[in-house]
Amino acid sequence: MTRTMILLTAGLALAASAAWLVSCGPTGFADEALVNGVRILATRADLPYAKPGDTVTLSVLAVDGRTRAPGQEPMVVYWFPVALAPPFSRPLPPEDFVCEDPANDAYYACFSSLVALLGDAGAKVIAPGVDLSSFVPKGPTFSVPLSSDIITKHPPVQGTDPYGMAIVFNMACAGHPELLAPNSSDRSFNQVPIGCFDKNGNRLDSDSYVVGYTTIYAYDALTNANPVISHMVYQGNDMDGGFVGDSSTARVPFVDGDIAVDPCAETNTKDCPTYSFDLVVPSSSWEVDPQNHPNGQPLHEQIWVDYYWTTGTFSDDSRLVYDPAQGYVGKTAVSWTAPADAGPATFWAVVHDNRGGVAWDVVPFKVQ
After folding, report:
1. Is the pLDDT of residue 127 over 80?
2. Average pLDDT over residues 344-350
């Protein structure tokens, strides 16, 4: 499965694609769900539970919420390797991007091979100050292979089904990636060894990039499917929002201009009209979780939705959709209040299950 959490490490926001936390957002933002910089909101694996030898395709929901000034570079998603060894070839083989079964299942244990390269024969190729944008893959999707022994080489963990794990790193960067020079004064055990730089070699701030990682779990027999968003609902009307994956109901598509609302002209925002957004996740997405059986009887998954937006104010950042025991909870709608200023707006709904399944929908609209 894939995991999702946000960390701050060595002053750098590290986004990890996670699963069983009901709500999770980056620290350091005035409103965690308000997207006003470069962000990774989710990562989706086509195989939430993989098997040894599988090839897993990852899709990243990375967004750029900045108000771009002239000359600012666009956001690009980069994938960076963890198992490099000279001689170097281009393109790098996909297995160089997979960190399998790191010590103690810790993502930062994967950094050692990158840091070690700073002192070996490959330093001239990937030394600090070298633009890696032509050296590493880019784009919102990437496929990685899992080894056939990913489970057998993982140390047994008492009380769990035998499993293996793989970690894949990426970066959403409004510039290009470079390795960071070692800092002897920084003794942080989980320092991320890569940063984002502009075309003049200046390191960019946390509004312009985020480093993310995805943890893929492999089992011999356990399976899991990604949840499905059937359609989005606006003001009580069913509409499909152009979901990038398994949206199963094609209603009226959202496009720029389909939804337009007036700016809020009231001094007190409590006096402004509100607009409702909702979504439908079919019961078929509420799978049995065979690993959750407190009384000997397996429960189902927990499914929840996290909401993000670029402007205005929503009533809630997240909602529970399905309870493991009680099933559909209902009341997943949230209300939105428009800002005073006109302009484009975007709303994202990211659905998670507690076993790493992910789905999302994107709704563009306008305040005018």
Report:
1. no
2. 90
Burial of residue 200 (CB within 10 Å: 0-12, 13-18, 19+) is exposed
pTM of the predicted model as reported, rounded to 2 decimal places: 0.85
Q: Is the peptide bond before 137 cis (omega within 30 degrees of 0)?
A: no
d(CA 104, CA 332): 37
Give the whole-angstrom CA distance, residue 173 versus residue 194: 11
Question: How does pLDDT run across 177-232, given as a tens digit for each residue?
Answer: 988 776 666 545 566 778 899 999 999 998 999 998 899 999 999 999 999 998 88
Tell which residue, 305, 324, 295, 291, has the closest CA to residue 159.
291
Buried b (16+ CB within 10 A) or exposed e, 22-32: ebbbbeebeeb
- Cα-flanking dihedrals φ and ψ of residue 126, to 5°? -120, 25
Looking at residue 168, its amino acid is V
231-367 CATH, one of 1.20.120, 2.60.40, 3.90.1570, 3.40.1350: 2.60.40
CB of 144 closer than 8 Å to CB of 166: yes
Domain segments of the chain: what residues?
A: 4-218, 231-367
Closest CA to 212 of 2, 6, 25, 27: 6
Picking from 320, 317, 342, the residue whose alpha carbon sits closest to that of residue 329 is 320
Give per-residue pLDDT as tens, 274-322: 999 999 999 999 999 999 888 888 899 999 999 999 999 999 999 999 9
Residue pointed to by tokens 């539970």: 49
